[in-house]
């Protein structure tokens, strides 16, 4: 939650993790007149992600590094700078020059909310750095992208509407997971355009989850309605799903609009062993063992 960020001295660098967003289930339930699709999604955040750091400076600057940094623009089209600019426009008296550094550890356009999570972390970091107290961050975030409000929330949740209607979930079980991306980006607008059916049922009512078994039992009644369209556009997603299934997980699914897929395991040891085997078999893929429960700094 937003109030979990502890204010620090304004002269210090504020560094926050921008965690991977995992859509455990994603139902497309309709489409608005303006073209935005209505969703019903069960979301958790992984214990891995990008890192955003912000430091007071004589003038604005922006640096991108990390294993996936070269694939990102470092100009005003980057969501990090769009977030900075949006917050500064809302609170112009607060927006002093700042040096921002983004360490990009998540694949680009991969269905795990990297850009949206980066924008959310930027908003959160700058509210601390600039001494801004506001309840408007979700509204500001929504102007940047439909996933930004849920990334600001940063805890297990159900997202409805276009993603802005958020219902938190307490006491969500620990889920050992492996994330896999074969290296091919997917276009979210193209995936939505390729949908055959847009008026699916909402998610079933949530039970009280107490274990991995409970979560997987529930997920067996759900789907990711974007998978068929994404796989049609990017057949390699099927290869990632097949590779994950070969490691004997509890459940395999694609996150978001692809192409990152995830598997859920019974223990962290099983997830780590599966990730090691997949890395040996596919050294060029993005493969990581993780679990839900985001890092904060």
From TrEMBL:
UniProtKB keywords: ATP-binding, Isoprene biosynthesis, Kinase, Nucleotide-binding, Transferase
Binding site for ATP: 107-117
Claim: Nucleotide-binding is one of the keywords in the record: yes
Active site (UniProt): 21, 147
Domain of life: Bacteria
Domain spans labelled GHMP kinase C-terminal: 223-281
Keyword Nucleotide-binding applies: yes
Enzymatic reactions: 4-CDP-2-C-methyl-D-erythritol + ATP = 4-CDP-2-C-methyl-D-erythritol 2-phosphate + ADP + H(+)
Domain GHMP kinase N-terminal as annotated: residue spans: 78-155
SUPFAM superfamilies: GHMP Kinase, C-terminal domain, Ribosomal protein S5 domain 2-like
GO MF term set: 4-(cytidine 5'-diphospho)-2-C-methyl-D-erythritol kinase activity; ATP binding
Known EC number: 2.7.1.148
GO process annotations (BP): isopentenyl diphosphate biosynthetic process, methylerythritol 4-phosphate pathway; terpenoid biosynthetic process
Pathway: Isoprenoid biosynthesis; isopentenyl diphosphate biosynthesis via DXP pathway; isopentenyl diphosphate from 1-deoxy-D-xylulose 5-phosphate: step 3/6
Family membership: Belongs to the GHMP kinase family. IspE subfamily.
Role played: Catalyzes the phosphorylation of the position 2 hydroxy group of 4-diphosphocytidyl-2C-methyl-D-erythritol.
Protein's UniProt name: 4-diphosphocytidyl-2-C-methyl-D-erythritol kinase
Organism: Phyllobacterium bourgognense
Gene transcribed to yield this protein: ispE
């Amino acid at each position: 939650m937003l109030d979990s960020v502890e204010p620090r001295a304004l002269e210090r660098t504020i560094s926050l993790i921008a965690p991977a967003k995992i859509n455990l289930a994603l139902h497309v339930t309709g489409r608005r007149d303006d073209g935005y699709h209505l969703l019903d999604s069960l979301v958790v955040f992984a214990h891995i992600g990008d890192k955003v750091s912000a430091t007071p400076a004589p003038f604005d600057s922006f640096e991108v590094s990390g294993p996936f940094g070269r694939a990102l623009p470092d100009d005003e089209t980057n969501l990090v700078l769009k977030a900075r600019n949006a917050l500064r426009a809302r609170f112009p008296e607060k927006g002093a020059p700042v040096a921002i550094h983004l360490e990009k550890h998540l694949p680009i356009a991969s269905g795990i909310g990297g850009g949206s999570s980066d924008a959310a972390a930027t908003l959160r970091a700058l509210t601390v750095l600039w001494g801004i107290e506001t309840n408007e961050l979700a509204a500001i975030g929504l102007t940047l992208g439909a996933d930004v409000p849920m990334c600001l929330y940063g805890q297990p949740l159900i997202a409805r509407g276009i993603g802005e209607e958020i219902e938190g979930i307490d006491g969500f079980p620990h889920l050992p997971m492996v994330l896999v991306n074969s290296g091919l980006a997917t276009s979210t607008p193209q995936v939505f355009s390729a949908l055959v059916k847009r008026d699916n049922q909402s998610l079933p009512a949530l039970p009280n989850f107490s274990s991995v078994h409970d979560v997987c039992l529930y997920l067996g009644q759900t789907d990711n309605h974007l998978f068929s369209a994404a796989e049609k556009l990017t057949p390699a997603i099927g290869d990632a799903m097949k590779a994950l299934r070969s490691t004997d997980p509890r459940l395999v699914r694609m996150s978001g609009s692809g192409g990152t897929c995830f598997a859920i395991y019974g223990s962290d040891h099983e997830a780590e062993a599966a990730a090691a085997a997949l890395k040996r078999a596919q050294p060029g893929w993005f493969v990581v063992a993780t679990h839900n429960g985001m890092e904060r700094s």
